[in-house]
# Entry
Amino acid sequence: LKTKGGNLYYASAIEEASVSGAVMAAMPLADIHRMITEAGYVPCAVIDTLDDSIYPQLCKESAYNLAGSSERWVNADGKPQLSPFSPLTKAYLCELTEEISGAGFAHILCESLDFPEFSETDLAMLDPRASAQDRGTALAHLLTAMQETAPTTAFYLSVDAQKLLAGKADIFKSGAAIMPEAALITLPEGENVELSAISAKLHGIPAIFVYPDNPPESQPYYLIYPDTSAPVVESTEPAEETESTDTTESTEATASEIAVG
# Structure
């Protein structure tokens, strides 16, 4: 529903979204939700959180600023991006969350909850918070604020496996407690990755693995829990239900039944 770059593909009633030119579709959220539900799926809304160059054009204070200046940082394409340090960023994303969850979406997948690939030159010019060791705390607080806005909604966090293994997924380095329903892990194409090594870096958060090609029969297809004693789904067929020794309550729909969009 909110894509990389900041476009919204539904008829948002949020004034800033409309004024900024982010709204790219006229279909109401309720209609989108109804169509997916009538097709037999559980709707899951995708919100690309911080990779947004549209809203910062309207609300400049929502972008990364250069240290001691009101001038905005821009990426290699000359575009600003939403900063997790800005209260305006939090307010905007929480408004979107409230609007989407209020239309009946019980599942939200958060993408791009991370920092841009800053160069050393960038970091030298930016607000010192952008290079602080605990900068991931701002990401964790942003996710928590969105969850508090929609407390009955299940949140999922999209994570790149290579960044996670390299220790570059800042939200998991902050030490701040985060409680998404699961982490959606995109595995690198053509590489064999030890899934337990990924799970170990998630601090108790269940992982759903996304394979670039068809999942190999020797690897789990659907879900693995960080607790290595937990059962793992070995079948390459979509599973209706996954058992676990984890004490958290399982969601009503499996990944194969959720329509993501």
Confidence is low (pLDDT under 50) at residues 220-257.
